[in-house]
Amino acid sequence: MTGPMNAPGNLRARWRKLWRDRSGVAMIEFAAFLPVLVLVLLGGVDLARFIIVNQKMDRVAAGMGDLVAQAQTLTAAQLNDIYAATKYIATPFDFTSNGVVIVSSVSLTGGVLRVNWQSRGSGNLNATSKIGAAGGVAKLPAGMTVTGTNTLIAAEVYFNFTSFFGLSVVPNRQLYHTSYFRPRLGSLNTLN
Prior knowledge:
Structural class: alpha+beta
Strand content: 15-25%
Distance between the termini: 105 Å
Largest sheet: 4 strands, antiparallel
Number of strands: 4
């Protein structure tokens, strides 16, 4: 007999049947796991970007230092031409807005390491050299020395890394990379 009197029993039977039915369990488990999967995927993309940015900034520092050290003499205009290469090395990252290159010449003057000259270019980021200021005492890493009439070219690269998805896998930070080269053909202790 079916009807309103038997409705609660019929409802209980339907609930029991629904409770025992396992045909949609995989889809429900996938739907529950999907947000975690998406976060892991996006975090992996951000981590990969961070690694690539670090590699690019290492190349920028090495490239700038090497190009400067190849010159026999150097003018500000020639240095600006060298800076122009930065955006191509740093591609696809926006170095103009988020980075800056600082090139310094360091030599021994009166027994003290001094910054002979310093130039900045390639970007608009406001950063201060960790080597020192032009005319001031130079700070080099431990174990790095400059002797006699030798000169050292230091290329510093600063870049503001911003997480692509705003996740905290790799937080936003300022990257810093340096390279040091000895001039090959000239002393480069003056910038003409």
